[in-house]
Amino acid sequence: MGRILLVCRLAVRDLRRRRLEAALLLLAIMAATTTMTLGLVLHDVASDPYQSIREATNGPDVVASVMPYSSEPPGDPAERVIDQPAELAGLEELASAPGIIDHSGPYPVTTAALQTSSRTSDVQAIGRDVSTASVDQPELIHGNWVRDGGVVVEAAFANALDVRVGDAITLNGRWFEVVGVAVTAAMPPYPQSSCFSPRGCASGATSEELSELPPGLLQNPGLVWLTETDVRILTPDPGSLSYVMNLKLAEPDEAQAFVDANLDESSGTPGLQAWGEILEEATERARDGQLVLLFGAWLLGLLAVASISVLVGGRMADQTRRVGLLKAVGGTPGLVAAVLLAEYVLVAIVAAAAGLAVGSQTAPLLLGSSAVLIGSAGPPPITISTAGLVTALAIGVAGIATLVPAVRAARTSTVNALADSARSPRRSGWLIAISARLPVPLLLALRVASRRPRRVVLGVVSVAITVSGIVVALALSAELTNLRISGRFDDAQAEMIGQVLLVVMVILFSLSALNAVFITWATVLDNRHSSALARALGASPGEVSAALSAAQVLPALAGALLGIPGSLALFAVINAINDNDNNATLPPPWQLLAVILGTVLVIAALTAIPARIGARHPVAETLRNGFG
Amino acid sequence: MNGIGTTPLVQARRLRKEYGTGEGLVRAVDEVDLDVARGETVAVMGPSGCGKSTLLHLLGGLDRPSGGEVSLNGRRIDGIGEKALARMRRTDVGFVFQAFHLMEELTAIENVELSALLARRSPRAARRRAADLLEQVGLADRATFLPSALSGGQRQRIAIARALSNEPLLVLADEPTGNLDSAATLDVLQLFESLHESGQTLVIVTHDSRIAATADRLISMRDGAFVDETRLTGGTRGDLSGLVRLED
């Protein structure tokens, strides 16, 4: 017990003694955990909600439908006369087909014009039993299930119409009260709804596309559920009703094979849709956003690793002396490792919790309507597996951060550790020779940079990643505008991808900015002695400050230049993965130049403050403290 | 306390440096008056923590006084800005530290030329001057060695060469032999002796009576204040090696 207390006390004291460094480390790990949380949440939204809705609603493996049809041979749909009612016999045959273990329906479906206080829309209304169905019982997000006079609206459609439980709407001029909002796995969410109208539907069409379509088509019809009675009231002619039936297979994975085996293209026979096809349509909208976030998550992950490497590396160097002190007063390598582990685990747990909180709070902003678009009702919950993975990442960082100094502690002699001689600066003779010919700030800057080449590489990589991200974001943004103007993306889709892009960029900028500050601060701390000495030898605080800042700006310039070929590589990968022909192209040269110059200026501004603080530390105090 | 010449190079009046506040207030330097003439060597002795090093830092503009005045070459430096102080340190003052404070990644000659480069001398002139100084301190054959490959005495001689790089008016040495063995101490003593003879103004803070014996004037310090002053009539001359052996 005493030993645990001692370890905890030493760990907490060290964190309190280096509050700023502890806070920066916390931020770096938090940035990584937030990024990971967002990535996992979007993944969940893009795929898992459909699966979970399928489970919650006992979703169908195959949806079968029959519609009224024309006895005339196929021709121009606008000219055809629908003169034959839907043939329910086909559905009844399917219900008893081999491999079917359960079914619900057939349910009557009618089309109607829905009007709210401010909008009108086409809808497909399915007549359902008031009692619970064994297959496809829509999951209520708000309110209750259907009753006579009460309508339940599909969640994405409700979101698009901005209707809530309790609102009054009309269907074909008849008043209904919205009694519930629900999701289903039997149909892709609005506006990608399946079509049960013999006249056909234009689902997911842009306004431009709609204007070019022939009249009579249902335009982006939404889905509502009514009682069967209400559906029949809305449809004076029973012969105009379509019917839908939900089938459950013994082998859900065989759904497509079942469809292939039973689909008959001739008039009046049931149309079949396997659940895999519905999933495909349900997640189509999220795919572009997911691609953006996937790359964003990779870029952010790399940046977070760079931040953590700088900070942990800096702290590890700092820990060498502390390790020496602990060993000198009788601490065993085990005790030293325990103290370091306790310290990092404490930071990691706080960072993981904060990352999960920030990620889960940011996710709804990021996903906005897109979650609803693909069938999820609201902010996606943080699952246990997400929380576990994020915490594992943070603890993993803590473990690595502990391992290296712990091994060093075991291997380094106490005397050497006390002398802090583990990390002597690197020497680059050619750089020192070149720097002698430069003005004082650049002379010092090159020498500062050459002392820690790995840190310079991290700085270059960090900026290169950010610039690559910015260039790709600019290109995607331009492409998005083009797709929106050309009508290939509708507003909701463009808005969703725009949101994803924006959030990724905001995090990328923030993390990159933090990185620049981390690296500068690590450089400032590492160069305390040489900065003080340079000042003792006559360098002014301004010159030292400019040197510390320039030591970051020069790698930033290199990183910004490298970011351009980096973005080309990213483009190649994105275009290779993206199979929908929306190939992005590099932004114009003036934008690339602006990105490079802007990045360098931002880095200069960000590093100015820590560099200034570092350059103004009292010289006598630093030299008296015996560094070097 | 007047020095040898009529116009003091260094002048301090009621010089004070305090740390902390209230009951924790420590007067590291307490109302000190000091004149150092051009060409004079002054040794300051006293127990650890008496304020010797702090005094040196105040005289060289590395630290700012809490009160009083300091002048160098007739110019007040206690109230001037950091930039002007840096300029002053660059051209008028050379420091020698007990811990050498050499840049570990620079060779001997690169360490020596650093001061000249910071003073914006041309790289060629800085290199030539550094080579001359290394010759003077007897380390011309170690010019391309890194500090880690040199002995303590050699490192201190490089630090002295660096301090002389810009031909300063004043050299301030803080325990220059504190980390050295007898042989290295002798080398450094001889260097200071030759500097003294060449008319270089020196203020040396030391525990070592052998170093103090080479000074023109010896000041004893205790609790931040001067408690005694002895004029040594030009300092000890002659067989320094004998003096070193005697002390050992």
Commentary on this structure:
- The complex is a heterodimer of chains A (628) and B (248).
- In chain A, helix 2 (19-46) packs antiparallel against helix 12 (384-411).
- The radius of gyration of chain A is 32 Å and the shape is elongated.
- Chain A contains 21 helices and twelve strands.
- Mean pLDDT of chain A is 79; it is low at 372-377.
- In chain A, strands 2-3-10-5-7-6 form a six-stranded mixed beta barrel.
- Chain A has 628 residues and is an alpha+beta fold.
- Chain A has helices at residues 2-17, 19-46, 48-56, 88-95, 155-161, 207-212, 228-234, 255-262, 275-328, 333-367, 369-373, 384-411, 414-419, 429-435, 440-451, 453-486, 491-526, 528-536, 541-577, 589-615, 619-624, and strands spanning 62-66, 100-115, 120-128, 139-143, 150-154, 168-171, 174-183, 201-202, 218-219, 222-227, 242-249, 271-274.
- Chain B has 248 residues and is an alpha/beta fold.
- Helix content of chain B is 34%, strand content 26%.
- Chain B contains eight helices and ten strands.
- Chain B has helices spanning 52-59, 82-92, 108-118, 123-136, 152-164, 182-197, 209-212, 240-247; strands at 8-19, 26-37, 41-45, 67-72, 75-76, 93-96, 170-174, 201-206, 217-222, 225-231.
- In chain B, helix 6 (182-197) links the parallel strand 7 and strand 8.
- In chain B, helix 3 packs across helix 4, helix 3 runs parallel beside helix 5 and helix 4 (123-136) crosses helix 5.
- The longest helix of chain B has 16 residues, at 182-197.
- The radius of gyration of chain B is 18 Å and the shape is globular.
- The two termini of chain B are 32 Å apart.
- Residues 1-5, 235-240 and 242-248 of chain B have low confidence and may be disordered.
- The A-B interface holds A 424-427, 432, 436-437, 440, 443, 447, 450-451, 529-530, 533-543, 616, 618-620, 623-624, 626, 628 and B 53-54, 57, 60, 62-63, 82-83, 86-87, 89-91, 95, 97, 99, 101-106, 110, 113-115, 117-120, 123, 126-127, 146, 148, 162, 166.
